[in-house]
Amino acid sequence: MSSDPTQPRLVLRDVAKAFGPVLALRSGNLTVHGGSIHALVGENGAGKSTLVKIVAGVHRRDAGEMLLDGEPADFATTAESKAAGVAVIYQEPTLFPDLSVTENIFMGRQPLASGRRIDRAAMYAEARSLFDRLGVAIDVRRPALGLSIADQQIIEIAKAISLDARVLIMDEPTAALSGVEVERLFAVARSLRDEGRALVFISHRFDEVFDLCDTVTVMRDGEYVGTRTVAETDTDEIVGLMVGREVGELFPKTPATIGAPVLEVEGLNRTGVFHDVSFEVRAGEIVGLAGLVGAGRSEIARAVFGVDRYDSGSVRLAGTAVPAHDPRAAIKAGMAFIPEDRRKQGLVIDSSVSRNVAGVIRAGLAKAGVLTARAENRAAAPWAGRLEVKTNALDMNAATMSGGNQQKVVIAKWLATDPKLLIIDEPTRGIDVGTKAEVHRLLSELAGRGMAILMISSELPEVLGMADRVLVVCEGRITAELDRAEATPEAVMHAATHSVEAAR
Q1: Residue 163 and residue 126: Cα distance in Å, rounded?
Q2: Each residue of 29-54: pLDDT tens digit?
Q3: Could you tell me if 152 and 177 are in contact, meaning their C-beta atoms sit under 8 angstroms apart?
Q4: Which of 485, 467, 457 is nearest to 282 (CA)?
């Protein structure tokens, strides 16, 4: 590491990158010092990921300059980047599941004893020493298979330290973590900062940025916008820099006429998962399903739609019974379900935008058993346009799109079925503040047109800002039903942390 404390550890100046006709990065700028945690924020599609991949050696820049400890750097491969002291900790690390924690850390560079045999004792001792430095207790001999995302990230950090990484980039590391796991990760990040390493932290969660980071750089539309010290800025300024305009109300909830019940759930039970769940959602109403992670919210929604089984109870849509464990029947009855994991469950990630949007209604588009790309495009175009999906062509691969645009494609796919009820799980997870406002506005518009909406969210401000009624789930039971006026953060959290008996 450089001995000059005034010299930046990592510098990027006017870095540009194009993929064919698409200019992903126009002018990327970033200056990160050792002994600091530097946030990199921006809307989806702002160029953050491209910038990170250039530093990581995944892509080579087309123009601009990169310096590492004052020396010019240009990485043709990820191996070159790692050898130079750069490590990227991704949201979902990729470990070898059948190898031990220690073997994953030292893969390809195991210490050798006499006879060129792997010195396992030395390797285990070094792994324990790494985790001791991080203040984390992990069994160094256990297989990686079955480890939590949080533990996998810590292992990647241990690997980076073992390689004496000078720059660590954490790309949306907290998206899949619980509150306790986030605090542990932040403690590790602060210890790395205190050792003099430079950290770059990418997140859409402003509370985390202001809690953890020293400095924040904002990007927009592939360009550098500005850098602020965290102590001298606030959320409103950062949001304004990100979107280039006043966002206005993040939760644009407009009054809607509440009609007759559309969804009626009665006495739904599944052993060990949820118990005696009963509620209704009316036309024009947004009902928020709140609660802590693991409370059973998503499991209830999946059972209502028929993805998962339930042992007893009933589901009715518009007065008609919906067969259990039959998503096709649910869709035919007028249900739409947008799952929490859009990449794995909501999209055919390697297919085009038009094929994804037309996916659920494909059978109705075929003529004489033949479905053409033209028919898919014709069906998808109005919905893609209505949701302002940012793509140059409907045949663009969904895998290449930003998280916000992927979410819009999933929503468009289900709105194309003209549903009576929309179930949407974590509608804005992992998307930027500008797109969040767009999704919220869309939900409000749909409710205004009479659609019934069941919204599951772990973000309490989102629940309170968008729901007409809030149902709170704790340990698989609904412990409170709160009207919009009485749904305060305190009331929701009390019901989310107390069993039915305690709530009474």
Answers
A1: 12
A2: 999 999 999 999 987 678 898 999 99
A3: no
A4: 467
Q: Which helix (H) or strand (E) holds 402?
A: none
Q: Which residue has the tokens 């008609």?
A: 320
CA–CA gap between residue 365 and residue 426 (Å, rounded):
30
| Predicted confidence (pLDDT) per residue in 258-298, tens digit | 999 999 999 999 999 999 999 999 999 999 999 877 889 99
Please measure the distance between the N-terminal and C-terminal CA atoms of the chain and give it in whole angstroms: 59
Asked if 422 contacts 446 with a C-beta cutoff of 8 angstroms, the reply is yes
Q: Please name each of the domains of the chain with its CATH number.
A: 10-95+147-243 (3.40.50.300), 261-503 (3.40.50.300)
Segment 431-483, tens digit of pLDDT: 777 778 888 999 999 999 999 999 999 888 889 999 999 999 998 999 999 99
Q: What is the pTM of this model?
A: 0.62
pLDDT tens-digit series, residues 367-406: 655 666 676 666 667 766 666 665 555 667 767 676 777 7
Exposure b/e, 456-479, CB count within 10 A at least 16 = b: bbbbbebbbbbbbbbbbbbbbbbb
Give the residue with greater pLDDT, 342 vs 473.
473
Those residues whose C-beta lies under 8 Å from the C-beta of residue 170, and which sit 6 or more positions away, are 89, 189, 199, 200, 201, 202
Written as six digits, the tokens of 285 are 């109403």
Q: Is 501 helix (H, G, I), strand (E, B) or coil?
A: helix
Q: Please say whether the dihedral angle defined by the alpha carbons of residues 59, 94, 353 and 175, taken in this order, is positive or negative.
A: negative
- Cα-Cα-Cα-Cα dihedral sign, residues 94, 97, 102, 107: negative
Helix runs in 140-290, H state only: 149-162, 179-194, 206-212, 235-243
**Mean of all residue pLDDT scores within the chain:** 86
Reply yes or no on whether the pLDDT at 156 is more than 70: yes
Which of 9-13, 322-326, 410-414 has the weakest average pLDDT? 410-414
Query: How far, in Å, CA of 274 to CA of 263, rounded?
Result: 18
Distance CA 487, CA 468 (A): 9
Q: Single out the residue of 436, 460, 485 nearest to residue 297, CA to CA.
A: 460
Give the pLDDT of residue 498.
65
The DSSP 8-state label assigned to residue 406 in this structure reads H
Query: 97 is written with which tokens?
Result: 């599941």
Cα separation, 355 vs 372, whole angstroms: 10
346: closest CA among 392, 405, 393, 292?
Answer: 405
Cα Rg of the chain, angstroms: 25
Beta-sheet pairing, 335-338 with 421-425: parallel
How far is CA 218 from its chain centroid? 19
* Six-digit token string for 222: 């592939």
Could you give the angle at which helices 433-448 and 235-243 cross, rounded to 10 degrees? 80
CA 75 distance to own-chain centroid: 28
